[in-house]
C-alpha cells in the first residue's frame, strides 16, 4: 500500500518523486493534506470585518468557501498552483481593525488541496491573508489587529514547498528595483535602508506639515512624513521615489520614530 506522499505523487502523475513541505517559522506548521476539513462553526464577525473577506476568484477559492470558510486572499504560487487564505471567524477592533481567528493557507492544484499551512496548537502566531510576490512566491500576513508579514511560501520544483521567514528584500517592478524588508522597523532605520536601495524621500508640503504629528517627524529629519491619524493606531504615511516607480510606506504607533506596518509600490 502506498504511503500518503507516494500516493499523492502517483495521483498527480509525478512518478516516484513525493511532495514535501517544511516550515522555518516558529509556531507555524506546513503539512501535506488532500482533504479540506469543513469549518467547525459558522463564520462569526464577517459582516463587521467585511474588508478582510474576498469573493472567491478561482476553483480553489470556491472549494474553500463551499466548506464554510471565509476566503481572505488568493495568490498564484509557482507556475501552476494557487495559495488561498481563509478564516473561521473575526473579532472587530478599534479603527476598523479586525482579528482573524482560525486562519489557514491552503495550497491547491486546481480544486484539489495539496498542502495546508496553519498555526500550531498553543502558538501565538496567526494567519490572516496572502499576497503575491514577484517570482511566483506568496507572502503570508498575520491575522493580528495590526497585520504584518510573518513569512513567505516558495515552491521549489513542483510540490516541494517551503515556508520561510520574510525575505531580506523583494524584487519589484519586473526586477528593476528592490525593497528591503522594513516591516516592523522604526521609520528612521527604514528610510536609511530604503535610501541604500535607491528610494529617495519625497519631501512633504508645507500644508502637510501643519499637522502637529507630521511636524514632529519632520523636525526629527523624516522630511517625507505626509499625513498622520490623530486617533486609533496612529497611522502615518510617507512617500519615496526610485527609478522604477514610487513607494508609499505606512507606520503605526506613537513612538518618536513609529514602526513600519505596510508598504506599497507603484511601478512606472
Automatic annotation (TrEMBL):
It comes from the Bacteria. This is PASTA domain-containing protein. It comes from Labrys neptuniae.
